[in-house]
UniProtKB/TrEMBL annotation:
<feature type="domain" description="Phosphatidic acid phosphatase type 2/haloperoxidase">
    <location>
        <begin position="72"/>
        <end position="168"/>
    </location>
</feature>
<feature type="transmembrane region" description="Helical">
    <location>
        <begin position="71"/>
        <end position="93"/>
    </location>
</feature>
<feature type="transmembrane region" description="Helical">
    <location>
        <begin position="113"/>
        <end position="133"/>
    </location>
</feature>
<keyword id="KW-0472">Membrane</keyword>
<protein>
    <submittedName>
        <fullName>Probable lipid phosphate phosphatase beta isoform X2</fullName>
    </submittedName>
</protein>
<keyword id="KW-0812">Transmembrane</keyword>
<feature type="transmembrane region" description="Helical">
    <location>
        <begin position="153"/>
        <end position="171"/>
    </location>
</feature>
<dbReference type="InterPro" id="IPR000326">
    <property type="entry name" value="PAP2/HPO"/>
</dbReference>
<dbReference type="GO" id="GO:0042392">
    <property type="term" value="F:sphingosine-1-phosphate phosphatase activity"/>
</dbReference>
<dbReference type="InterPro" id="IPR036938">
    <property type="entry name" value="PAP2/HPO_sf"/>
</dbReference>
<keyword id="KW-1133">Transmembrane helix</keyword>
<dbReference type="Pfam" id="PF01569">
    <property type="entry name" value="PAP2"/>
</dbReference>
Length: 173
């Protein structure tokens, strides 16, 4: 498996054991999952969580939907906040990317710093924002576009909640 590289710049000595453990566990997980996940799936995830993909999508939806433009303002401003905050934190910590996966970044990279993950922050930002915006009426979008009857949407929402509960309670490994 090779020795993990603690790819950091100068951190306080009390953090070095944590950084070494983090690098070891990360290398172990990389080695474990690399043969399992096809490269196209990993590349799809890489692109979909990239700022240069998700921000233009949000901006396009804002510009294409004047009647719903206020709905997309938090997406645009949130992307800019994410870019600024993650960029600032990365400049402070300057932890370099892991050495064992150099070819896994086809997306345009603004820096070579790893901490914190911009992809992880962006995905969680989008998931949280979608949840907060649509928590009370998200299922009704299907009804608004006249694809289903209201009872179809309500029954589908009920089944979806049950599936989520079952998946959370019984389908975890």
């Amino acid at each position: 498996m090779g020795s993990p590289e603690t790819t950091t710049t100068s951190f306080p000595s009390f953090l070095k054991p944590l950084i070494t453990i983090d690098a070891s566990v990360s290398l172990f997980l990389h080695t474990l999952f690399k043969p399992i996940f096809p490269i196209f799936l990993l590349l799809l995830l890489e692109y979909s969580a990239d700022f240069w993909f998700s921000f233009p999508v949000s901006l396009s939806l804002f510009l294409a939907s004047p009647s719903f433009s206020s709905l997309f303002i938090p997406f645009i401003l949130g992307h800019l906040l994410d870019l600024a905050l993650i960029g600032l934190i990365k400049l402070i910590f300057r932890r370099t990317l892991p050495h064992y996966n150099p070819n896994m970044s086809p997306a345009v990279r603004a820096d070579n710093f790893s901490f914190p993950s911009g992809h992880a922050s962006r995905v969680m930002f989008l998931a949280t924002l979608f949840h907060l915006i649509f928590q009370n009426h998200g299922g009704l979008i299907s009804d608004f576009i006249l694809r289903h009857f209201l009872s179809d949407v309500l029954a589908g929402a009920f089944v979806g909640v049950l599936e989520g509960i079952v998946a959370f309670r019984f389908l975890r490994f």
